[in-house]
Amino acid sequence: MSAAAAYRALYEGRHVLVTGASSGIGRSVALGLAQAGARLSVLAENDLIHEAAAGIAATGTAPEHVLHCDVSDAGQVRAALDPLPPIDALIQVAGYQPRTPVDNPDPLIDAEFERCMAINVTGMWHVTRAALGKMGQGGKIVLTSSIWGKTAVPEYAGYVTSKHAVIGLTRALAADLGPKGINVNAVCPGWVETEGAMWTVREQAAEQGIPVAEIVQQIADSFPMPGMMQPQDMQAIYLFLASDLARDMTGQAINVDRGAGVI
């Protein structure tokens, strides 16, 4: 049974906003929600969101609102969310994963670091603040961190730092919003075969002078449970945390990583 089928009774009539829904995990989660019968709004900063919305409509409930804005811009976010009806759940997947080696003197590295923080942390803050006025008792907020939010790798200081910050933001928001009856949790994905992850893989392959497929296999074989996850493998955890089944959970950062976080 798919995650969508299992959750249909929990999502009928509920309005869920998903950011980063033009590709990867965000698009897959939005598709799962649509197939579960949720009233859906989707948001991304690129024009691909319209193509994604059409694809979602072809296999599930059509998104009611398709929003195009840069989450790092508070004004754009407020304008985009203003027309939305009350929000039952907010799922934030929008993210940026640039390479930011600290010993590279290129000023572009500084710009990439700042853009990473602006999207991955400040953007989540802007969207949360804009959505809160439309959320009430029983609302759910799900943020996206990473297994790199609990560890570190070289040359990705911006991304690693931002994903650590997302876990801190999750805990702080949980403390702030718990008295209002709003749950806040984070998902920490491991390696998922998304466009962003594959960009990183291609960089590694080029540096090492080996085929991309070899890097993918090395990554997949490094987990206690070998294998590279696909975006649809992430649907279940997001649908769980954004549902009333997670009403007693808040402030948690949950790994879905085939055991990568334990080694």
UniProtKB/TrEMBL annotation:
**Entry's EC annotation:** 1.1.1.304
CDD domains, per database record: SDR_c
Q: Identify the residues that the record assigns to the Ketoreductase domain, covering every copy.
A: 14-194
Q: What class of enzyme is it?
A: oxidoreductase
Kindly give the Pfam families that the UniProt entry links to this protein.
adh_short_C2
Q: Which InterPro entries match?
A: KR_dom, NAD(P)-bd_dom_sf, Sc_DH/Rdtase_CS, SDR_fam
Keywords of this entry: Oxidoreductase
Q: Name one GO biological process term.
A: fatty acid elongation
List the molecular function annotations (GO) for this entry: diacetyl reductase ((S)-acetoin forming) (NAD+) activity
Q: Which residues cross the membrane?
A: none
The record's family statement is: Belongs to the short-chain dehydrogenases/reductases (SDR) family.
What is the designated name of this protein? Diacetyl reductase [(S)-acetoin forming]
Species this chain originates from:
Roseovarius indicus
Q: Which gene encodes it?
A: budC
